[in-house]
Design brief:
The complex is a heterodimer of chains A (133) and B (81). By secondary structure, chain A is of the alpha+beta class. Chain A is built from three helices and three strands. The two termini of chain B are 21 Å apart. By secondary structure, chain B is an alpha+beta fold. In chain B, a hairpin with a 2-residue loop joins strand 1 and strand 2. The chains are: A alpha+beta (133), B alpha+beta (81).
Chain lengths: 133, 81
Amino acid sequence: MKDLIEHMARAIVEHPDEVVVTEEEEEDQFVYRLRVAESDMGRVIGKEGRIANAMRALLKVAAIRKETRAILEIGEGTGRPSFRSEPRPQAEPEPELEPEPDLGLEPEPEPEAELELEPEPELEPEAESGDKP
Amino acid sequence: MKDLIEYMARAIVEHPDEVVVTEEEEEDQFVYRLRVAESDMGRVIGKEGRIANAMRSLLKVAAIRKGTRAILEIGDRDSSA
């Protein structure tokens, strides 16, 4: 299932090399954390969380096939502040989406982060591929 | 993109060895045809087409990234359409 998430994410981001998926087993389910480059956050979330939910829908079926359950959390960067060992001097708004431990299924970025994380790939407009009902 | 479809389909079916994806280039877009075992049709389509649409959503973004468009058709191994 980790493979599946990596595969899906790498197919849609601009920086496939920055895609990182971690897997943790908790009681009766697997928790996957997907990290992508900040500039790819909009792509993996999608308009109204559509892409995130698409990945979750597929993951769910894959998990059912394996008779388990799976949760997908999505965030940018490494998810751990290891790359930023010293605090930044400037107090700029923190656009980072820390995964919420209890509510991994919320597909939308936090409201206060929306200036940075408009979840809309810039390339979307003309893409009418006829799959509207 | 063919890889992506194969990967997604194989992850959710019971007969991954029967998953076949063909690719055709038409004018400005790619047309993919996904064939699975008849008994797996329900899995790749999903309730109210949710899984099929999930695959299409991802395919769409992958296609946009490559500056093209893509269509996904789904059928069982016997269908020729």
